[in-house]
Every structure is written in C-alpha cells, then in structure tokens.
Write a structure and sequence with these properties.
Strand content: 15-25%
Mean pLDDT: 90
Helix content: 25-40%
Low-confidence stretches: 1-14, 392-416
Radius of gyration: 21 Å
Largest sheet: 8 strands, mixed
Distance between the termini: 56 Å
Strand order of the largest sheet: 5-6-8-7-9-12-10-11
Number of strands: 12
Shape: globular
Number of helices: 15
Length: 447
C-alpha cells in the first residue's frame, strides 16, 4: 500500500495544507521519447503527479512528495533529463493562495457588493446560491435542474437557458460543464461567467435567438468541496465500495476516464489509488452518468459540447484514445481555431496562445474514457476539452492588484495557481471562445 494512504488517513488531524509540507514541484523537459517514457514510469513508481504532462517539445510540471524527491532527482540526473525547480514549498504557496482568496472576499465585503462565482473561488453553496438567484430573477429564460445527487448526496445542478423554454426545435443546443476534475478551480468561474453573459449581461441577442444552453458549473461537487477542506490537489470523485476497504482508503474515480468509450484501454489506470483510476466499470460514477444523461437527452439538437479543464491553454478534440481523426476533423479543427483566435484577441500578454488539435497529438499521450470522446461517439458533431490557462505567479506583498503592469510582469510568474486577480481576465476570454464556437458550430453543422 502506498505510503501516502497513511498520510491521507491522518490529514484531518493537521492544520490546513499540512499534508503538503515538504512537497515540491519541478519543471521537467524530456529530450527524447525514451526520456519521456522514463518520466511516465515515475508516475506509478514514485507517485509523481503531473500538473502538466511533459512531451518532447514541451516542459511538464511534476509534483513530488518528500519521501520520493531524492530518488526522483537521481533518476533525472542519471538519465540526463533536463529539470529545474518549479516550486520549492508547496504548502507555503497554498497558504498564500488562501490569503489571496480571503483578501478578495474582504474587498467585496468592504464594498458591500455581492461576490459572484466568476469573481473568486467560492464554495459549492455559494455557487448554488448564485444559480438559485439567477433562476429566480429570470424565470422566463432560466430553468434550474437538479440532475441528481453525487455519491455523498450533494445536488448536481445545471441551468437550462432558453428564450423559448427549449421548445423551439430549430434552435441548436450547447452544453458546457466544468470541474469534472475537482482541483481545477478556474473552470467553475468560467462556467458561471457564461451564465452571467447569457442571462444577466446579454450583449449578443443571437446567442439566445439561435441557441438553447445547458451550463453545469460543478459536475464533481464531492471532490470540489474536498479540495477546499482537505486536499487541494484532489482530482477524482469521492466514491468508495463499502465491501472493499481499499476503495474506502483510496477513494474516487477520475471522471474524465470513466465514460464508455474505449474505457480502461489507455491513458488510465486500474490502480484504485491512482489519480487517473478509470473506475470499476464505465459509468461507475453517478457524476459521469448524470453528464451522460444530459448529453443523451439533448442529443438530437446538440451541436457543441465543451468540458472545461485546466491547465495548459489547449483546445482538444477527438479521438484521444489513439490519435486518429474523426470523420468531422475539418469541422472540429475549423471551429477550434476560431475559438482559439477569439480567445487570443481578448487575452492578456502573460497567457500563452491556445494550441488546437487532436487530443492525443496536442497533449502527447493517449486517453480513454474521456467525456469529449464519448460525446462525439454518440453523435455530438463538435466536442472539445478546454484546458484553461495556468500561469505561475510568485506573489509579491507589494503588488497592487489593480495595476495593469502586474499583468505584464513575466518575471513574477513562477507559482502554480491562478491568482484570483486573473479570474476575470480568464473567464472573459473563455467566454469569447465559447460564444464564437457556438456561432461557427451552427454555420458548419446546419449548412
């Protein structure tokens, strides 16, 4: 049994983030496929967690626990794999993240201004309160749906946004979900901002005239809450099998490996403790079954599905399991490029330009059981995984958050969290991509 299991069992007895004391992260840059394979083997051998997976032409970011750091560095040195420190003290960085989130809360309290889920990283109740408020204030165009309940009993909610109550069969359906991976906090504000733009700040009538929208801001509520209370880097659901003690200790399933498309064949794990554990069977998780049901219920009119993840500044499309191209590859790439161009036109200079392409080729490894591939396999013409930006920011106590120069100072970008000051720029640019994608999708699919 892995050593970290014992740590996990005791985590609640320590102060917040104490579990991450001594953890470090490293940039790793393989120069060959052989070096890339060696880095891949460390994932199971040394329990390495890749925030960004390396490939031969791209640095990765590896999170390494204290007990494995010496061996990890020895392997890199012996194999002559280029590397450098990414973050020397993960716990301290997490503590600083909390301080910045709280400071942002305080700003809104001081102004007596309601804080929205696209302003800061909020807890699940606050996100659902916002959805309740939107549904109550705009009953003519918004219907709130509780799709079901998570493994731990939390509601999984989404909004149906339509000027015609989803009754006009000539309108195309767009589905956007977020936070399938619990630790990817920036995805929730991006989904919430889409709600804001469609309902509260309507500036483009075409988006309601021609489309019906389904927005699910938190598809993995158990995992999301757990990242706020226990383990910031928790990725999976929180399910377990009462008859299997190991599943109680090593809880959860990677939702984006749990869909019924080449399930469990590549890019996932059958190790219950692994972050990319695919589950005991396709759709073993109630959370993924609910996403599946939304897709199938609206399949006849759904032309675009976007699942929001982070990070890496990528727009990925099928097929991820083997790198082959879909029969609709030209449409997928054309719309993907249009979305990336729209994002780039809005983005801050510190964010990298999005890369667009087949999932396996862009990220450099195959994945099976993904939501993006499943949605395409059942007939959604255009399906994408967005990997939102993840800049690294070295916090400076003297920084002025409202100073535009902060956004252009590349010398300070070396952490691994998206500081709350960057939430609004990211959600605004993401919305540009989504809205352009909807329009281009309709042109391609309907013609």
């Amino acid at each position: 049994m892995r050593e970290w299991i014992l740590v996990s069992l005791c985590a609640v007895a320590f102060a917040k983030h104490e579990i991450y004391s001594g953890w470090k992260s490293y940039y790793v840059a393989p120069a060959s496929q052989e070096q890339l394979s060696i880095l891949g083997s460390l994932e199971s051998k040394l329990d390495v967690d890749y925030f960004v997976r390396p490939r031969v032409d791209r640095e990765g970011v590896a999170l390494v626990k204290p007990q494995y750091q010496e061996e990890f560095l020895n392997v890199l040195a012996n194999e002559e794999i280029s590397h450098r420190i990414h973050n020397e003290d993960i716990k301290s960085q997490l503590d600083i993240e909390d301080e910045h989130i709280e400071a942002r809360h305080a700003e809104f309290r001081a102004r007596s201004t309601p804080e929205k889920p696209y302003d800061n990283y909020l807890r699940l109740d606050a996100i659902y309160n916002y959805m309740d408020e939107v549904a109550a204030n705009y009953p003519n165009i918004v219907q709130q749906v509780t799709a079901g309940r998570s493994f731990q009993g939390r509601p999984i909610k989404y909004l149906k946004i339509s000027s015609t109550n989803f009754e006009d069969r000539s309108k195309s359906v767009i589905f956007v979900d977020a936070t399938m991976h619990a630790r990817e906090w920036i995805t929730t504000p991006a989904a919430a901002y889409a709600i804001h733009k469609l309902v509260e700040n309507r500036t483009d009538s075409e988006l309601l005239d021609n489309f019906d929208w389904i927005i699910m801001p938190v598809s993995n509520p158990d995992g999301y809450e757990y990242t706020h209370t226990n383990e910031r880097f928790w990725r999976k659901t929180r399910s377990f099998n009462i008859e299997n003690l190991i599943t109680f200790i090593c809880r959860g399933v990677d939702g984006n490996r749990n869909f019924d498309i080449h399930w469990g064949t590549v890019g996932s794990s059958d190790d219950i403790c692994a972050d990319n554990y695919a589950g005991s069977a396709p759709f073993s998780e109630i959370e993924t079954r609910l996403v599946r049901d939304v897709l199938n219920e609206n399949l006849s009119r759904m032309i675009l599905y976007i699942t929001l993840h982070s990070y890496g500044s990528m727009i990925l499309y099928p097929w991820g399991h083997d790198g082959s191209l879909s029969n609709n590859a030209l449409g997928l790439h054309t719309v993907g490029i249009a979305m990336a161009d729209a994002i780039f036109a809005k983005t801050l200079p510190i964010f990298p330009r999005y890369r667009v392409g087949n999932s396996m080729h862009v990220i450099g490894y195959a994945t099976s059981g993904s939501a993006e591939d499943y949605a395409h396999s059942i007939g959604v013409p255009l399906t994408y995984t967005y990997e939102l930006p993840g800049i690294e920011h070295d916090y400076d106590e003297d920084e002025d958050e409202d100073d535009d120069d902060d956004f252009a100072d590349d010398d300070h970008l070396k952490g691994f969290h998206l500081d709350p000051q960057y939430i609004r720029p990211v959600v605004e640019e993401t919305w540009e991509g989504i809205s352009v994608g909807a329009k281009r999708a309709r042109l391609i699919v309907r013609n």
